[in-house]
Records
---
Amino acid sequence: MKAGITKSVMIVEEDPSYRALLRKILRSLNCNVVGESSGGDEAINLYERKKPDVVLLDILLPQKYGLEVLKKIRQQDPYQVVIMLTAESDQETVQGCIAAGATGYILKTDSANEIRDRIRKFLI
């Protein structure tokens, strides 16, 4: 990421400890976390209010499945950067995310360094 440029990021993740890890990684990348949500309906409302540069979106959420949230975001902004978070590395899950309009995905099973490197690629 270019020096002096701060990206706004919204985290949508049910697990509080994983949200904390993402927050820490994002701070190390000089990102501004503008909102956090643990559920799908709340995520859509938060997105509409905050309009972040990047959305980190868990696939499995209470209320609405993450892909439903992704589709709602895509309706509002087809160019929004949305990175899906998943523990599933099977080809069907990954292809489903990309087909639904995700910019990319992060495996929750990756190390913190691997997650940081993947996020960094989407911030440039």
---
Amino acid sequence: MTDIFLIFDNSLYQGLQYGLLALSLFISLRLLDFPDLTIEGSFAAGAATTFACVHYFGLGVISLFVATVVGFLAGMCTGMLHTRLRIGKLLSGIIVAVGLYSINFRIMGAQANGYILPGENPASVLRIANAAVAGWFTGNNPARPLYVYPVSNAILLIGIALIILAIFVFLRSERGSVLRFTRAENKLFLESIGQDYAGNLVVGLGMANAVAALAGGLVAFANGSASLTMGFGIILVALVAVVLGEAIVQVFHRELTDLWPVLLAPIFGAFAYYLILRTVQELNTAWQIHHGAPDPTFQLQYFQTDVKLLSVAILVVISAFRRRQVGGVYLPERL
């Protein structure tokens, strides 16, 4: 029973952090029809900014707000490259993401990796609370430590609920309703009613990357470190979470047109994704114990590097299944 709780708790902890990253991809990909690769750079920029603000200026939790602003500016740059300079969508995102690599290096004080000391990290207080709860489960047995995050999960759930509520309220407003129609095929319609397509797209991409940078800041606090390379390939995690979350929501809510379910889908998808990864890792550990710790190079086992392959497999299976089941339901597949 403890193992099941451990898998669930750890998966929820990671899923809540990366669920915000998936939400950022949902905003750019599903709402704006913009396959934005900027989030790979803005995610790392959020972590780098959080590290710099905490390590050099002692801003604590306020660093998350600074990181959010940095992400918003990065998204705006991508939008302006596309709308003002007529650079393609994918290329605009790549340009900003690559440029952010050098900028992040400077933000972190000319170093590739930065470590947030326990005394600087606001998450240290949560770690103490988490350890207290873990001690209640294990009887404070040092020989059997239990790494659980119930207090952190509760704080993350409340924070993410407030973020989703704020996004929901904004998208239901007059300005947000226009933003939801900011797609290339609606450009002439928006201009005919006096709306600025380019301006709305820039704001939308800024909002998406602000959420991605916030996710990066949370991960930096959770890991106690930031790295220039932490954003490389991270868009795959977000993409799998979005697709998996939409598949989960469709089980209970057939139409993917209502706002509440689609905003929650990335969070559900991220949790399910890490639940799958954690379960596979536990099964592999049990298999190794059963076979007496086989040769580490034995190919018929799960390696940590197989995460990418497993992610791709999940994405392909869910996408293939959904295409056969969706039928006439409108579901944008612009990947």
---
Amino acid sequence: MAIYKHVGVLRKSDAADFDRYWASPARVEYSGIYQCECRHETTLRGGEPAPLSHRGHPPGMPVTWRLVVACWEAAP
């Protein structure tokens, strides 16, 4: 889970883009921190493909990613 210390560095957003899941190997739209359904996190740049898998991913579980923190330049 992404965490932060300084309250003023993040801004809340109710944008629907945070509810969208990116199925691997779709290219993500925004740069930021993405979380797999199994809770593993990774950083991606906008336009990069979502990883097909990662170490420790449970067998049989789909590899889909959700944007949890967007960089300020591309924030929805």
